[in-house]
């Protein structure tokens, strides 16, 4: 939802006049679509049908890549906000987009942390391991 906000806020400005916002648009649209696809995969439990794929590793790599690219998107978006823009609402929307890009970056960072824990199996203990054996 937050990535969609970044996308909508940037798209509602004159982003085509600034090349930096093209990168922010690419990152927000690309990872929003991929996140929705992963959500559908987990919602329909397709990961159980494609058991050969190491889903915990795939999710870890996806979240790590999203974190790194959203860091660059946030920095780009925040650096390109100009308080002296000729349209005041462009400034407000771009500043809000930078704020929400920061929130998305933090969210993907937390997802990377939890995906790493799931990949390493750090959330289990000896009792739960004995039950499944």
From TrEMBL:
What's one GO BP annotation on this UniProt entry?
myelination
Location(s) in or outside the cell: Apical cell membrane; Myelin membrane
Q: What is this protein called?
A: Plasmolipin
**Transmembrane region positions?**
20-44, 51-75, 95-116
Q: Per the record's keyword annotation, is Ribosomal protein included, yes or no?
A: no
Q: Which Pfam families match?
A: MARVEL
> Per the similarity annotation, which family is this?
Belongs to the MAL family.
The species this protein belongs to is Urocolius indicus
Question: Which keywords label this protein?
Answer: Cell membrane, Membrane, Transmembrane, Transmembrane helix
Q: What lineage is on file?
A: Eukaryota, Metazoa, Chordata, Craniata, Vertebrata
Coiled-coil intervals: none
Q: How does it assemble?
A: Forms oligomers.
**Protein topology in the membrane:** Multi-pass membrane protein
Q: What range(s) does the MARVEL domain occupy?
A: 1-120
């Amino acid at each position: 939802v937050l990535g969609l906000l970044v996308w909508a806020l940037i798209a509602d400005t004159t982003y085509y006049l600034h090349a930096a916002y093209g990168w922010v648009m690419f990152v927000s649209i690309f990872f929003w679509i991929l996140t929705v696809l992963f959500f559908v995969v987990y919602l329909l439990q397709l990961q159980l049908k494609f058991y050969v794929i190491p889903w915990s590793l795939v999710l870890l790599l996806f979240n790590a890549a999203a974190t790194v690219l959203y860091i660059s998107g946030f920095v780009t978006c925040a650096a390109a906000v100009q308080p002296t823009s000729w349209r005041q609402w462009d400034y407000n929307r771009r500043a809000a987009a930078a704020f929400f890009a920061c929130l998305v970056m933090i969210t993907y960072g937390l997802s990377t942390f939890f995906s790493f824990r799931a990949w390493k199996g750090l959330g289990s203990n000896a009792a739960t391991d004995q039950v499944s054996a």
